[in-house]
Amino acid sequence: MARVAIALGSNLGDRLDHLRAGLAGLERLGPIVDVSRIHETEPVGGPEQGRFLNAVAVVDTSIAPLDVLARLLEVERTRGRERTVRWGPRTLDLDLIAYEGQRLSLPTLELPHPRAHERGFVLAPLCEVWPDAVLAQDMTAAEALGSVGSSGIKPWEGAWRTEAPHLGREAVWWVAAQVVLFAVWLAVAVTTAEPASTARSVIGGLMIVGAVGIMEASRRALGRNLTPYPQPRSGATLVSTGIYARIRHPIYTGVVLLLAGASVLAGSIAAGIVAVGFLAFFTAKSSVEERALAINVAGYQQYRTAVRGRFLPR
Known about the structure:
Layout: E1 2-10, H1 15-26, E2 32-35, E3 38-41, E4 52-61, H2 65-78, E5 93-99, E6 104-105, E7 110-111, H3 120-129, H4 141-148, E8 154-156, H5 169-192, H6 198-222, H7 250-266, H8 269-296, H9 300-306
Antiparallel strand pairs: 1-4, 1-5, 2-4, 3-4, 3-8, 6-7
């Protein structure tokens, strides 16, 4: 038996499903020894295209290198892989990176992979499962990663073979930061409030009523998918009806409108500024959230393209 490292990548369609199917296909080679986390990466070279999900699996096999390659190509074909554009987008990419004890230079296969030692999106997951793998120029994976670095590579926590890739503790920090911002707004509103006026009461009251309506419509549409964390619940499904047919993050719209209305009611310009500042926070939080949704919820990437408005209809 020999140990082999195989890189998996996808940036078309249901990327996570493609990677899981690819991993299932690798079981035909032999026992899977270890699997890295999912790493989300920007595309390198080729035309403009979406982000990749990358991982590396280590397999023990008795199959010869050329036969391993043939089986990898067959698994790719089962997922609709088309090789029309060099370094173009793909449903599933399976690359034989290293084969223990083997060095080959053939027209159809080079071992170790001739460019793996230059690619952070291969090296980062490879170092999680086989840091001592020998690559081109006699560099280990760990040595190569130390040279190349992992800038722009986002690892997602979780055993993605069976569970949703997630943010881990980062998700908790986003919620904690949101709670702190609410506390800041409340403190500013209380300390700078002015006596109520009829005009402010009417305007602020209407804003609050509208905000509550938006949030309630959002809650009803989401149902069990609702969560304060910037990542979907396990088993979450795409919601694209009701208010979500026009806005991708209406709850955040409702929160900002609610705080702005309460600031008007309190007559506090400072609280209003903090309320508007929530837009910047929710923009950052929703960006992280959408990356998680695009990984875990089938159809979310197409939905995001179709529904352009993040907080307001577009």
